[in-house]
Design a protein that fits this description.
The structure is a single chain. The chain is of the alpha+beta class. The protein folds into two domains: about 230 residues, no CATH class; about 140 residues, Heat Shock Protein 90 (2-Layer Sandwich). It has twelve helices and five strands. A five-stranded mixed sheet has the order 1-2-3-5-4, with helices on one face. Helix 1 runs parallel beside helix 5. The protein is elongated. The two termini are about 60 Å apart.
Length: about 425
């Protein structure tokens, strides 16, 4: 091997090492650091030296390279096992196909070149083109799959198996067709063979991009379906809350209507010195009034019912709750939208509290600021990073934007806060729902 080949090999190893780590970190949403690249490139060089010294088969070398890149993803970048495998396979898949594509061109053109300087120039250009193709494909993959989809891996099997198939086919092509790519005479049969391989490898890269496109739309379709189901369940739940609130209101109205009669009966019992009967009658009135009262008085009967149900669940799990909230009577926010905010916020808060030990608490507060009203939900949580925004928070954000407001989340150590700003001066009839 001459100095040109050694230098070009070193350059390719460094370039591929940088691209592999950068691609894996970008794909999984991790922040790359300088020592990540240094570790991987160093191991990459050792693997290449061992493979050339002991003449390992190419498939074994690629397998070891996959394991190394998996280890970098898993133990250095801190990704999940499934995400680490997918990132490692995609990184190697793209680099092998990109260089294999150019190898087909080299096999057709290079045997006809006799000038050494021209040959070196063409090899350098071919290497640059291979790297450019790799970068373009890496960029397309990163744009096609979000870190949230990689992190959850819900439907990644749909992507992984086609990629494994194409990757295995490429390894077979590289092993059987490009062990020696330079010939003294390129026969028409070999020319046809390498042209066909060029076409197949171009199809391989195209198949990857098409698979990613289909995978992205599959994920979005299933996510939309899940959101619709969640929204449908939320609608049913809010209808129950509203119906129960109306029932409580009618019962309270009836109780207030009869209060004069109750006071007359009580007065008559006291006038006749029937103290025991009076106490028993008062206890009955107290029992009735307790069933009609709400643990929280927010000024909105629907929210009072919802808070009562959710805080009852929290208390059963040993979660303390503090409510400091009063919704102004001239409020342009629909009861259904209030239920969406409170139900989703409290469900998330209770779930977060249930996942930890020790002190568990929830705090709900509200404050009017001119034409705007700020709702604040705070709860204890674990030290783990926040998961991707789910359907619940997405629904809350949609309601906030509907009322020309905003939603903000923040996590500080073991405390999570959710703030929802709403414009309460907007008349419900003036709100226009934007269609996607």
């Amino acid at each position: 091997m001459d100095y040109f080949s050694i230098g070009l090999n070193i350059f390719c190893l460094i370039a591929q090492g940088i691209m592999h780590v950068y691609f894996c970190a970008s794909l999984t949403g991790k922040k790359q650091k300088a020592y990540h690249f240094a570790i991987y490139i160093f191991i990459f060089f050792i693997l290449d030296w061992i493979a050339s010294k002991f003449s390992f088969p190419w498939i074994i070398v690629i397998g070891i390279e996959l394991l190394i890149l998996y280890g970098v993803n898993r133990f250095i970048l801190g990704n999940r096992p499934s995400a680490s495998w997918v990132a490692a396979i995609l990184a190697n898949y793209i680099s092998q196909f990109s260089f294999g594509l150019i190898n087909s061109v080299e096999a057709v053109i290079f045997p006809r070149v006799t000038n050494t300087l021209l040959l070196y120039s063409m090899v350098t250009a071919a290497t640059a083109v291979s790297l450019a193709i790799s970068i373009a494909c890496y960029t397309s993959v990163v744009k096609s799959i979000s870190p949230e989809e990689i992190g959850h891996m819900t439907y990644m099997g749909c992507l992984l198996f086609p990629v494994l198939f194409f990757f295995t086919a490429e390894l077979y092509i590289m092993q059987t067709s490009y062990t020696q790519i330079y010939y003294d005479v390129l026969s028409p049969a070999l020319l046809l063979e390498h042209t066909a391989l060029l076409f197949l490898q171009a199809l391989g890269l195209g198949a990857l991009l098409c698979t990613l496109y289909a995978y992205r739309h599959l994920c979005r379709s299933l996510q939309t379906k899940a959101e619709m189901q969640s929204l449908s369940q939320a609608v049913q739940a809010q209808k129950i809350y509203i119906a129960e609130a109306q029932t409580r209101y009618e019962q309270t109205k009836a109780f207030r209507h009869d209060i004069k009669n109750h006071l007359s009966v009580l007065s008559a019992l006291l006038n006749n010195n029937k103290l025991e009967e009076s106490k028993a009658y008062l206890q009955k009135l107290e029992t009735v009034s307790t069933t009609l009262s709400f643990p929280c008085q927010t000024g909105n009967s629907v929210v009072d019912i919802l808070l009562g149900e959710k805080l009852k669940m929290a208390k059963a799990d040993g979660i303390t709750a503090e409510v400091s909230l009063f919704l102004p009577p001239p409020c342009g926010i629909d009861d259904f939208d209030l239920c969406v905010i409170f139900a989703n916020a409290l469900d998330n808060a209770i779930s977060a509290c249930q996942s930890i030990e020790g002190v568990r608490s929830i705090r709900i507060s509200g404050e009017r600021q001119g034409d705007f009203y700020m709702l604040a939900f705070e709860n204890t949580c674990s030290d783990n990073p926040l998961p991707p925004t789910g359907t619940g928070l997405s629904n809350i954000r949609a309601v906030a934007e509907k009322y020309h407001g905003a939603m903000l989340t923040e996590k500080i150590e073991r405390r999570f806060s959710l703030n929802v700003l709403l414009n309460i001066s907007i008349h419900p009839e003036s709100i226009s729902i934007q269609k996607p």
